[in-house]
Design goal:
The complex is a heterotrimer of chains A (about 650), B (about 260) and C (about 190). Chain B is an alpha+beta fold and about 260 residues long. In chain B, about 35% of the residues lie in helices and about 25% in strands. In chain B, helix 1 (about 5-35) runs antiparallel to helix 2. The longest helix of chain B is centred in the first third of the chain and has 34 residues, at about 5-35. Chain C has one domain (about 50-190): Up-down Bundle (Four Helix Bundle (Hemerythrin (Met), subunit A)). Chain C: Belongs to the cytochrome c oxidase subunit 3 family.
Chain lengths: ~650, ~260, ~190
């Protein structure tokens, strides 16, 4: 294998264009047209200045949160296109039918998983944390606003690498887990796996910084009286999730960096030859990977807790239980990684212990479900869209929990591992468990962010399409998984599977309608924003602090910081008719100035990734130098804040 | 077609599911019932906005899942040991078969008979079979769904799997772990037969004019999709051990890549 | 007095401790990988064939001394004695740079003798562990340079001092990692 590597362009050449299949070319064209169209619209509207100073360089946690969610929604669409293409292929692919060549199908299942985990779910949950946590704890911003912007732009840079791989070169064919030795150069030369590695590495750095940022924010920036046991449940889950990020992400960094070294430098960490150890990859990957599941799902649990209490007009049942259950889950999540490879041939004792440890997680999870049920008991339930998603979650999630426990029983795992049963299980956890929560959170906090509610009818339609679509798309996969169908099949010869795969494709079509409904909901709501702006400060009869400030809140969140003494402080205030006491403002409020540090570092991260992927070493070096000089220059800046609100108690009034 | 391992796994699946459904079904029903009963428009339902704790409920909601998991845990401990893929099955001396994953096919070596095949596995019914599994390529996963069990095949490492077929018949085995372009077609026929038929099959393989040696192995190591069944009349003793030890020196650098074989 | 959003010193140092914790896990996992791969020589040379006691002692001496000098620099800056602080920082820089030179010399020697990171799993893990530490030291050198500039230009104001305290912490952390490398990587091979 000899490659021409030019000093200027590395191994980048004309053959990097996706001319190998018309579907790939179409994807590339849509991506390019989307990008150009966006640039054209911004130019046509003359919004560049506003975009730059209002959003790109903003360090306001609310705006960064919104940008995260926009990124997540864009990537949701991209990841869903992958999904429905796979469903169509498998619905047709009996006896080698279908429309996708194998290598294209392989890229699609790899990019689908990568995008949905790293660039849809992670940004979505991070965005919701960004938006809501500082408001919920009565803080003016996160602890490190500029670092927050850096985190976002590094995540966006990773997502950018995945998108660019559609147009320049190919994406990985090794699945979202990138198992070696298949993902090594021996079996997958070319740039695909490198795109996967660097997208994950660059965004992983951003996630680590987010984790640090939110642990400090939640533990150090709470307003007076906001003790830990007064914190809203969402903040609790955000805290546990952030701690998991800090502890778990180093494993992902290490394992992907080692794979990168194997591929680029020729080391032997995970190769078949030269003393490599493939099993070490799986251990390291899942030491990150299992906690990652809880990083994604715990904040969704937090959202369900907020939503179920608010829309049942009732106190959250068993708050201390929910807090302890969350912490127990967070700790246990580090003790179960081996259940991802029971079939590796570890002894019966090891497999049994990890199987049992996995099931133990079902206990605190079960407690949570019961606590939500008893929150509804003797409540006054309003079926607003966020509540619908929460109810749908409760009904579907227990099924996923059950299949999870089945997979945790090693002998059952031997028969179902790597089948579509497994695929159905983790989608059952991540779609109803995490994504339904995020969508509920999006609809729940949207009025706080923009000052008007989202349309209720389209929200309900979106829910019913997602709910029924999910059932149709994934229950069949449980069935054919038990019949022995492997995951990642580009074609198959078993006629018994096809009817189920056609049903699954129809389910995916319903989910498509669900996504379209979300789009229409947004459009209709923006159109009717004046009508929907009624009572936007507190549209749901909210209970927690964030509903006590204006919608949208000022850049500094609260002019006078609230002093709380109970859990649902805003609800108590409304009940007693006395406003939440506040600390008098004795001086002017300063907020951090906008800065280009975040976008510049994100751009530099993109350059480093792109440079290494294509062996364009000068570009990678320039990117690294840009990171270093930007950070150094920033450390010399003193005047980083500006007065945003004049003080009142400075002797004048 | 089935075997004792598959039957035991299926029974375990049914038992564990049944046990969990005892909780799962009531939870779903409660969710729907509570949501309906306590809908905001239902003025006749009780409303206790401040009721947020109850010792009885707390003990129950921690207790029920804990008991459930306790029951399942004992089941896991017993059955994981009983159905350990490495555990030899009762019922006499097992037939030893060495399975090697290649791109994208399976090589089976019968060390006791000194023969080998590609993509066809014959086994006597009603007699335990003990597999030794490895890979010469990326990680594969060996499974015969009708007989149960599954084990990874990894280069330079040997894993084990013990299975048995209850009666004669034809089944299909395959690789379950995605390994590249030919993965969907990486299946092999499993022929369970009477002892007499099995002896006849051995003779048929021995009648082949091909032998397994370094040259023919290099040939079948070339990546190919849906490779035809091939018989090798002889296979040198220690060939499998040689593959395990020497997988580092196999000539696979450029010629077994996905690109080399793909489109 | 302003009710600024700006993070107080305690928040920054708490955040920095979290970063160090995360970084410690990163090193821990690389150490674990090294231990897992310590017998995967693939017919290549092992530590006993490669390591030199003199080099190791010199590196260790340089780095341990630099931990002392950086502490003295921090102490001097706290007392607003800028001159001595700069001298101690410069000395720390020199010691760290000396350490790096020795490390690069050792590693490039290995590569030249055919014992590079692509020789065996063991050497892959060895090179990765050492270079990860070396990259941290390099970043530390850039940081030291930056702090010297800031002391010169800004004087020992509270932000500069707070950064200096974190630099000191970081540098001690690298020392601790080096002691780990010393004991896990070198000691078993040399004694």
């Amino acid at each position: 294998m000899t490659e021409d590597i030019s000093p200027l362009l590395g191994r980048l050449g004309p053959d990097a264009l996706p001319l190998y299949s018309w579907v790939a070319m179409g994807g590339a064209m849509v991506t390019v047209a989307g990008g150009l169209g966006f640039l054209a619209i911004v130019t046509w509207l003359g919004k560049w200045r506003e975009l730059w100073s209002g959003w790109i360089t903003s360090v306001d946690h609310k705006r960064i949160g919104i940008m995260y969610i926009v990124l997540a929604l864009i990537m949701l669409i991209r990841g869903f296109v992958d999904a429905i293409m796979m469903r169509l292929q498998q619905a047709l692919a009996m006896d080698g039918g279908g429309y996708l060549p194998p290598e294209h199908f392989e890229q699609i299942f790899s990019s689908h998983g990568t995008i949905m985990i790293f660039f849809m779910a992670m940004p979505f949950v991070t965005g919701l944390m960004n938006f809501a946590v500082p408001l919920q704890i009565g803080a003016r911003d996160v602890a490190f606003p500029v670092m927050n912007s850096i985190s976002f732009w590094l995540t966006a840079a990773g997502a950018g690498l995945v998108l660019v791989s559609l147009v320049i070169g190919k994406f990985s064919t090794a699945g979202w887990t990138g198992y070696p030795p298949y993902s090594g150069v021996q079996f997958t030369p070319g740039v695909g796996v490198d795109y996967w590695i660097w997208a994950v590495l660059v965004s992983g750095v951003g996630s680590t910084l987010t984790g640090i940022n939110f642990v400090v924010t939640i533990l150090r920036k709470r307003t007076t009286g906001m003790t830990l046991m007064h914190m809203p449940m969402f903040t609790w889950t955000a805290l546990c999730s952030s701690i998991l990020i800090v502890f778990a992400f180093p494993a992902l960094t290490v394992v992907t960096a080692m794979l990168a070294l194997d591929r680029t430098v020729g080391t032997h960490f995970f190769t078949n030859d030269g003393g490599g150890n493939v099993m070490n990859f799986m251990n390291l990957f899942w030491i990150w990977g299992h906690p990652e599941v809880y990083i994604l799902i715990l904040p969704a649990f937090g959202i369900f807790s907020e939503v179920v209490a608010t829309f049942s007009s009732k106190r959250l049942f068993g708050y201390p239980s929910l807090v302890y259950a969350t912490m127990v889950i967070a700790v246990l999540s580090f003790t179960v990684w081996l259940h991802h490879f029971f079939t590796m041939g570890a002894g019966a004792n090891v497999n049994a212990i990890f199987g049992i440890a996995t099931m133990v997680i079902a206990v605190p999870t079960g407690v949570k479900v019961f606590d939500w049920l008893f929150t509804m008991y003797r409540g006054r339930i309003r079926f607003e869209p966020p509540m619908l998603f929460t109810l749908g979650f409760m009904c579907l999630f227990v099924v996923g929990g059950m299949s999870g426990v089945l997979l945790a029983i090693p002998p059952i795992n031997y028969a179902t591992h790597n089948t579509t049963f497994l695929v159905a299980h983790f989608h059952n956890m991540i779609i109803p468990g995490a994504l339904f929560g995020y969508v509920a959170g999006y609809m729940y906090w949207f009025p706080k962010a923009f000052g008007f509610r989202l349309d209720r009818n389209w929200g309900a339609r979106a829910f019913w399409f997602w709910f029924t679509g999910f059932i149709l798309a994934f229950m069949p996969l449980y069935v054919i998984g038990l019949m022995g169908m492997p995951r990642r099949m580009e074609s198959y010869a078993n006629p018994d599977w096809q009817p189920w795969l056609i049903i699954a494709f129809l389910g995916a079509c319903l989910i498509l309608l669900g996504i379209v409904s979300l789009g229409i909901q947004l459009w209709v709501s923006v159109r009717d924003r004046v009508r929907l702006a009624a009572e936007a400060d507190d549209p749901w009869d909210g209970r927690t602090l964030e509903w006590s400030t204006s919608s949208p809140p000022p850049a500094w969140n609260y002019t006078e910081l609230p002093i709380v003494s109970v859990r649902d402080s805003f609800h108590e205030a409304k009940l007693t008719g006395k406003p939440i006491p506040t600390a008098p403002l004795t001086a002017s409020i300063h907020v951090p100035r906008n800065t280009a540090v975040g976008p510049v570092i994100g751009f530099a991260g993109f350059c480093v990734g792109f440079g290494v992927i294509w062996f364009i070493w000068w570009l990678a070096a320039v990117g690294l130098a840009l990171v270093a000089t930007t950070l150094i220059a920033r450390s010399f800046a003193d005047d980083t804040e500006s007065e945003a609100f004049p003080g009142r108690g400075t002797g004048i009034s | 077609m089935t075997g004792p391992i598959a039957e035991a796994e299926k029974l375990l699946l049914l038992k564990a599911s049944g046990l969990m459904l005892l909780v799962v079904v009531p939870v779903i029903l409660m969710a729907l019932a509570f949501a309906w009963r306590y809908r905001a428009t239902n003025d006749r339902a009780a409303y206790s906005p401040d009721w947020d704790r109850s010792r009885v409920v707390e003990i129950t909601v921690w207790g029920i899942p804990a008991i459930m998991v306790g029951l399942l845990a004992t089941m896991v401990w017993d059955k994981t040991h009983a159905l350990d893929p490495y555990k030899p099955l009762p019922g006499g001396e097992p037939l030893l078969v060495q399975a090697v994953a290649l791109n994208w096919k399976w090589l089976f070596i019968y060390p006791d008979h000194g023969i080998a095949t590609v993509n066809e596995l014959a086994i006597p019914a009603d007699r335990p079979v003990s597999f030794r599994v490895t890979s010469q390529v990326a990680m594969n996963s060996f499974i015969i769904p009708d007989l149960g069990g599954q084990i990874y095949a990894m280069a330079g490492m040997e894993t084990q799997l013990n299975l048995q077929a209850n009666e004669p018949g034809k089944m299909q085995g395959r690789n379950m772990q995605f390994s590249g372009t030919g993965f969907p077609q990486q299946t092999f026929d499993v022929l369970a037969m009477t002892e007499a038929d099995f002896d006849g099959w051995i003779e048929r393989v021995r009648a082949s004019d091909q032998a397994l040696d370094d040259r023919s192995f290099a040939e079948i190591s070339q990546p190919s999709i849906a490779a035809p069944v091939t018989y090798f009349a002889s296979a040198p003793q220690g060939f499998f051990a040689g593959l395990l030890a020497g997988s580092a020196d196999m000539p696979h650098a450029a010629d077994t890549t996905a690109e080399g074989a793909g489109n | 007095m302003t009710t600024a959003v700006r993070h107080s010193d305690s928040e920054v140092s708490f955040g920095f401790w979290l970063y160090l914790m995360s970084d410690a896990i990163l090193f821990g996992l690389i150490f674990a990988t090294f231990v897992v791969m310590s017998t995967n020589l693939a017919g290549g040379p092992g530590g006993t064939d490669l390591f030199s006691m003199t080099n190791l002692s010199m590196q260790t001496a340089l780095l341990l001394t630099s931990s002392l000098t950086v502490a003295l620099a921090h102490h001097a800056a706290m007392e607003e004695r800028i001159g001595p602080a700069l001298v101690w920082l410069a000395l720390t820089f020199a010691l760290g740079a000396g350490f790096l030179v020795l490390e690069v010399r050792e590693l490039s020697g290995f590569v030249a003798s055919g014992a590079g990171p692509n020789r065996s799993g063991y050497l892959s893990a060895f090179f990765t562990l050492l270079s990860t530490h070396g990259l941290h030291v390099s970043a530390g050198l850039i940081w030291i340079g930056t702090m010297m500039m800031q002391l010169l230009l800004k004087g020992p104001n509270s932000r500069v001092l707070s950064r200096l305290s974190r630099l000191t912490l970081f540098w001690h952390f690298l020392d601790i990692v080096w002691i780990g490398i010393f004991s896990v990587v070198y000691l078993p091979e040399l004694f």
